[in-house]
Amino acid sequence: QSANIGVVGLAVMGSNLARNLASREGNTVAVFNRSRSKTDELVADHPEAGFVPAFSYEEFAATLAKPRTAIIMVKAGGPTDAVIDSLVEVFEAGDIIVDGGNALFTDTIRREKAVRETGINFVGAGISGGEEGALLGPSIMPGGSDESWVTLGPILKSIAAVAEGEPCVTHVGHDGAGHFVKMVHNGIEYADMQLIAEAYDLIRRGTGKTPAEIADVFAEWNTGELESYLIEITAEVLRQIDAETGKPLVDVILDQAGAKGTGAWTVQTALSLGVPVSGIAEATFARSLSSHPEQRAVSRDLPGAEEELTVDDVDAFIEDVRLALYASKIVAYSQGFDEIRAGAAEYDWTIDLGAVSKIWRAGCIIRAQFLNRIADAYDAEPGLPVLLTAPYFVEALGRAQGAWRRIVSTAAGAGIPAPAFSSSLSYYDGLRAERLPAALVQGQRDFFGAHTYKRIDKEGTFHTLWSGDRTEIEAEDTH
Ligand code: 6PG
Question: Which run of H or of E encompasses 397?
Answer without folding.
Answer: helix 391-414
